[in-house]
């Protein structure tokens, strides 16, 4: 598993995952280097709506179309910080990294100010917190059968899962990329 780069892949928690932060989760990996990995959970809506979050950060939300959308629980690291996973669009924000073709992550408040007036990305997920792994940790967890990884075959499929699939259906949608029925997964690792 050395030199594996899972940037732009989905991580699917295996049934043996008992950590309440990650049980039955799907995480989208935003960066994976020799320094570790970082991603956001994409199938855990929180009780916080965009309207509530924008009030807390003192940004007037004029874009009523997103007011009742739920902010996602992105992971246990920095749960007070916002992360916006989005399609790449014209416009630049202070802190954006490109993940894969037409997919980026922005952590600066200016993207939320754009969203508030309806000028932000049309396709986006807003999360609080992220999931992080130290160097070699993710690779070791995969070896221990904690995660399955899969990459969408194209941008259209990636964006469909990220932005169009209901939160409760994202686990099955990512499993379908592997051709696997979640009911067939075992929580015991086998090694040849």
Structure description:
The protein is an alpha+beta fold. It has a single domain (10-184), classed as VC0467-like (3-Layer(aba) Sandwich), CATH 3.40.1740.10. It is built from 5 helices and 10 strands; from the N terminus they run ββββαββββαβαβαα. Strands 1, 2, 3, 4, 5, 6, 7, 8, 9 and 10 form a 10-stranded mixed sheet that branches. The longest helix has 10 residues, at 155-164. The model has no long low-confidence stretch (mean pLDDT 91).
Give a quick summary of the entry:
The chain is of the alpha+beta class and 192 residues long. It has helices at residues 50-56, 109-116, 137-143, 155-164, 170-178, and strands spanning 10-13, 26-33, 36-41, 45-49, 70-73, 77-87, 96-100, 103-106, 124-133, 147-150.
